[in-house]
Amino acid sequence: MDWIDNKTILTPTGGFLAAGYTHTINPYVGCAFARALCGTFCYAQHNQWITQGRPWGLFGAKQNLREVYRRDYDRLRKPRHGVSRPLKIYMSSSTDPYIPQEHRLGLTRSLLEEMVERPPDVLVIQTHNTLIRRDLDLILKLSALCELWVSLTVETDMDPVPGFPSHACPPAKRLDTLKVFREAGVRTQATLSPLMPLADPDEFALHLDESCERIIIDHYLLGDGSPNGMRTKRTDFVQRLEQAGYAEWTTLEKFWEVRNFLAGVLGAERVLVSCEGFNAVGKTWERRSRPMAHENAVDGNGRLEEESKEEEEQEKRRKELPARKEAPQREETPQRPSPSPRRVRYNSD
């Protein structure tokens, strides 16, 4: 692994993340989880600017991150001319900020330390690894300064998944990690991206309900950034699923079946989908967010009790209104029969 000089660490977003974020941060180039299960479907492996013709893997670590972030931040938030610009960060889009090497190098931790001094408006920390628990202290501080989401990919409850390499980190431990952050008061989300086969959907849904405020569910046919999932189809991901007997999980029919099931357990407001879900931060999330399902019961029609009570109050107020007096009816006067309609003769030419 090489050390890489970098003039900037804040990369303007485009494409899939453009609606919710202004910038991404990638402390590493490439990913050490390339040979894990997530490496089989990782869309970043198709980025030729990163791979430069090399097999997908970890290529380098970026130097002087604190200084570079400070300079980038001040340029955006403290410009010499003009007004301060918003800063909504997705970390990371083409690597994992908590690869095993982070335990020794601490690049992501150094960024979090700097962010406490220079907080963004929004920060989503996306990882597969429970190493993020090391930084609970910093993340808790930062969550009081900005909208912060701890986001862990939990694409399945199966460990192992037949026909696939080992997980970067066991799914059960990832759910436990989300629960730790949630109980500490940090917003959490699980990304089922891409959705993979589930051994016990009922149990999985209960764990998700305990561990996170919301989930984002995605399918490679919807969210790999290419028409009809062409990026994923260039890998052996689909073939592995089919050979292991999970062909139905490659279809959108199965995807929507699972999405609807999870919405029935967690509440539809907590189950977001694909690109729209990933970008639901800031005002976008505030507009659509509601109290969590475990805090507000749901009535038999699938509505929050709060909504049902409001409707009942409205109906009660309507009934309490004084009845309108009917206007006296006038006697109808007999009407003369209408004249027969005139026939219109059309010329045949």
Overview of the structural elements:
The protein is of the alpha/beta class. The chain has a domain at 94-288. 35% of the residues lie in helices and 13% in strands. It has helices at residues 48-51, 65-77, 102-105, 107-117, 136-143, 171-183, 201-211, 220-223, 230-233, 237-243, 252-266, 274-278, 283-288, 305-320, and strands spanning 2-4, 11-12, 23-24, 28-30, 58-62, 88-91, 122-127, 147-153, 187-192, 214-217, 271-273. It starts with a strand and ends in a 29-residue tail after the last helix. The model is unreliable at 290-308 and 321-349 (pLDDT under 50).
Query: Got a strand count?
Result: 11
The average pLDDT is 86
The major pleated sheet works out as:
8 strands, mixed
The backbone outline, from C-alpha atoms, is globular
Kindly report how far apart the N and C termini lie: 90 Å
How many individual helices?
14
| Order of strands across the main sheet | 2-3-6-7-8-9-10-11
List low-confidence stretches: 290-308, 321-349
Radius of gyration: 27 Å
Which percent range fits the helix content? 25-40%
Order of helices and strands: EEEEHEHEHHEHEHEHEHHHHEHHH
The percent range for strand residues is 5-15%
Structural class: alpha/beta
Helices and strands in order, then pairings?
Elements: E1 2-4, E2 11-12, E3 23-24, E4 28-30, H1 48-51, E5 58-62, H2 65-77, E6 88-91, H3 102-105, H4 107-117, E7 122-127, H5 136-143, E8 147-153, H6 171-183, E9 187-192, H7 201-211, E10 214-217, H8 220-223, H9 230-233, H10 237-243, H11 252-266, E11 271-273, H12 274-278, H13 283-288, H14 305-320
Parallel strand pairs: 1-5, 3-6, 6-7, 7-8, 8-9, 9-10, 10-11
Antiparallel strand pairs: 2-3, 4-5
Helix pairs in contact: 2-4, 4-5, 6-7, 7-11
